[in-house]
Amino acid sequence: MRNVDLPGRDWVLVPERIRREFRFSSYEKAREFATRIAELAQKEGHHPDITLSYGRVTVELTTHDEMSVTEKDTGMARKIEELFRNMQQ
Predict the structure, then answer these.
(1) In the CATH scheme, what architecture does the domain 14-66 have?
(2) Residue 56: beta bridge partners?
(3) Phi and psi torsions of 21, nearest 5°
(4) Alpha helix (H) ranges present in 1-89?
(5) pLDDT tens-digit series, residues 22-40
(6) Molecular function (GO) terms listed (predicted)?
């Protein structure tokens, strides 16, 4: 596994991917965030694994062609962080 510049302190490196769990006060807010990630993924052409639970969204990013974490993943993670920050305002 190569050195990866994680996009924030809450992202963790797991085999061949980066992961973060986001917490929300309700299912509706978590669903809205997951939807925004999906819309961003379509626009960017880079699709994370998204798990939606009550008050939680877990995101995992990897570049399947490389079978590792690349700049595509860390760049997408930074954009997801920005979406999250904007929702908190």
Answers:
(1) 2-Layer Sandwich (3.30)
(2) 23, 53
(3) -110, 130
(4) 27-44, 71-88
(5) 999 999 999 999 999 999 9
(6) 4-alpha-hydroxytetrahydrobiopterin dehydratase activity
